[in-house]
Amino acid sequence: MAACLLALAGCKHNPSPAPQPAGVDYSQVAIPQFNADSAYTFVEAQLAFGPRTPGSRGWQQCADYLVQRMRQWCDTVIAQPFNATLWDGSTVPGRNIIASLNPQADRRILLGAHWDSRLWADHDPSQDKHKEPVPGANDGASGVAVLMEMARVMSQMPPSAGVDFVFFDVEDQGVPSWADTYEDDSWCKGSQHWSRNRHVPYYTAVYGILLDMVGTHRPRFTKEEVSRSFAPGLTDKLWNVAAALGHGSIFINQNTDPILDDHFYVNRLAGIPMVDIVQNNPQGSFFEHWHTTRDDLESVSPETLRIVGTVVMKTLYGDYPAK
After folding, report:
1. I need a labelling partner for 222 at 20 to 30 A (CA). Which of 174, 209, 259, 274 fits?
2. Considering just the CA atoms, what is the radius of gyration of the chain in Å?
3. Three-class SS string for 99-150?
4. What's the confidence (pLDDT) of residue 290?
5. Mean pLDDT confidence for 147-152
6. What is the pLDDT averaged over residues 280-301?
7. Which CATH superfamily is domain 26-319 in?
């Protein structure tokens, strides 16, 4: 994800709020039990492959692992290969992974996260490490782990809507801070590709939720401007659900500046209203070890993974109860 903020001038806003059944008490909505320890093992498994930088051995092994595990729980799994041109003109392979529950359902919910890790630790305190890869525990693996645990438990208690889990690739390979250039579209290559070439012709969803950096020990999620502009109803709903569950000090009812992340392209190019649940640090960086070599397992809290997964499932099952 880019640290930069982008202008929304000229963007098409989606004025239609996500569906919200009248009188739903989201704190009482029945959901499958999210296991925090299970989710944490999914973070560990991703990091065990080493850096998940595009084209590397760890990237290949992790992609195979994600496909294999999601096939255990989902009805269909599609690996969508593509090539991406990076900021310096080099070309890398990418692979979006899409796993679906109830693929025949007309009403669909899109849940996303990026699974690659960054090539360059360009914000590391040590300048000598600025061209080393980032482990990507919180930035990448945490969101994927939450979705994997959700897929595991939701497969045992499917909601009435279809659910598509999308792991976007080549999200985090945008222009490094040490390069003498900048380009917004150098980030989020996988979501750009998927939004222009969806895995099912004419695919759409009622709404989408993106998870990025959702494992820190000091979670702080705010309502950033891209989410509010394209999916205002869903943004408010998620934060209201979190408050109903007692997590109002984590999902803070505060409007903050826009962030360039995968949801921007899903909203703008695919026309699917999507909200970003993403760590926001009031000191100016996303979290303490963002884009450093210390974004390792110590950056991730199992309890934070559980809170995020529970809020998302309460929202989803409140709208589309189990069959």
Report:
1. 174
2. 18
3. EEECCCCCCEEEEEEECCCCCCCCCCCCHHHCCCCCCCHHHHHHHHHHHHHH
4. 95
5. 98
6. 93
7. Zn peptidases (3.40.630.10)
| Mean pLDDT, residues 207-233 taken together | 98
Residue 96 near residue 193 (C-beta atoms within 8 A): yes
Query: Could you give the C-alpha distances from 40 to 90, 104, 248, in angstroms and in order?
Result: 34, 31, 23
Strands 108-114, 76-85: pairing is unpaired
201: amino acid identity, one letter = P
* Phi and psi at residue 71, to the nearest 5°: -65, -25
| Residues 23-66 pLDDT 10s | 789 999 999 999 999 999 999 999 999 999 999 999 999 999 99
pTM greater than the 0.90 cutoff? yes
Query: What band does 1 get if pLDDT is binned at 50, 70 and 90?
Result: low
> What length does the chain have?
323
Exposed/middle/buried for 162, CB within 10 Å: 0-12, 13-18, 19+? buried
DSSP 48: H
Distance CA(231)–CA(14), nearest Å, equals 6
189, 226 Cβ separation under 8 angstroms: no
